Amino acid sequence: MNLIDLPRGYRGLLPRTTRLADESYLDFVETFRGIAGYGNYDQVAQTGDEAVRQQLGETDDTTPIEDIREVINALPFPAAWQRLMRSHQEMMWRRTRGSFLPFDEALLDAMKAAESEGPGKLVYDPNFTPPDYARREIHLQPGGYTDDPIGGVVYHYGTKVFYAGGNDQDEMHAELVDTLTPPADGVVNRVLDLACSIGQATTLLKDRFPDAEVTGLDVALPLLRYAHYQAVARQKAVNYVQGLSEDLPFEDGHFDTILSYILFHEIPVPVIQATVKEASRVLRPGGTFCIFEFPSASADMPASQRWLIDYDSNNNCEPYSPGFVYLDFHALLREAGFELAPGPKNSNGFLQTIVATRPNS
Amino acid sequence: MTDSAQDTPAPAIGQEVFGPGKQFFDNVVHDNLLESLLELTAAVWTCQDRIMILENVLSDLVGDNRNVAELVEAYQPSAQQEAARAAARAELVQSVFRSFSRRPVPGVSPAQNGVDS
Fold first, then answer.
1. Number of domains present in the structure of chain B
2. Which architecture, in CATH terms, is A1-361?
3. Is the CB of residue B29 less than 8 Å away from at least one CB of chain A?
4. Nearest chain A CA: its distance from B59 CA (Å)
């Protein structure tokens, strides 16, 4: 099976937009994001922290976020920054989806045809309905992860822009997989990519552990269909399963290692709690749970970082991220029986990395 | 397999990016101006990018190691072409800066406001 014949083909792993004008437009958005978005944030933070100090004095993670928001949002530069961040994010999704939508039937046909092909499998229950909490337009993506049938390709190109060109060929996912910490005994027979999305890390896990059974699980069928279609086209022997992280369809102690990349800030606190317990259950003694995630709040977290997370939650459709950030995530992991160690350093300095090991009993 | 439960009931797609959006300034005009600036710059880049690619395509077609961008730079328009360019340029300036002539800044001459009425 070949990749679908899009008008402008592919650039390596990445489908090209279907019109040059879309690529140019989105290249602009991507460049803008890098320079004016990420590039200006330090100045926003500096301005914001200074204003907070002047008006509220010293703050910590117990200072009401409403007070911090009121101070920083009143400043012209942060207001403009928020305006431009929101607008360019909207531009990104509108144009990306608009580029691929005229080819939706061909894309859906190709993904459907791939379902009966291997080497790996796609497993889902046609009667499964995603829970309401998952059906949000996270990051403003039209239809979110669950409700746009072509959401997989839209997510692939949209996040290419989101990562400002740094993940065009899955470079960032390669870093996650390369730095993943396997169990101390070195035995890796089964690997789970928890909330695998479009499978960018899943296939790379198979490359790293070629003799292991590698499974990607996600709640979103549009993403899994695209992941499976890509895996079939590239003959990657990985399995994809639709399911819930809080109710994993696997036996106790099934996996040797689990990767989770930016899952926990996208689910509500009760689901976080259940997911941690499930991860502990399906991991075998000595297995490792490798977590790359948003930061957890601490007393020395700058007011500007708390403001950024608040902005992102309210204006970039991240409804659950504050719930995660202000949760004592490390304590939760320990309560579930994990032993914690700092994870590998990641080039995205915003993320925290944790290696949670299930002790040998 | 069927899609019966997976595809229904779907919420309206694109409520975030096609809905009323967000306001960050007390005066929403500031929000609108900045968003317009972004779209305008994206449109300018899209045209510029196409021109650059067009020049490359034409150079390949012309062959003989002739660079179309250099040919364009060296091109000497006729008087008629110059007049047409000037008219088009004036039309663009008038349309972009029309608001300054409709609502001139008090105490500033029309020329300084950007448009001779």
1. 1
2. 3-Layer(aba) Sandwich (3.40)
3. no
4. 19
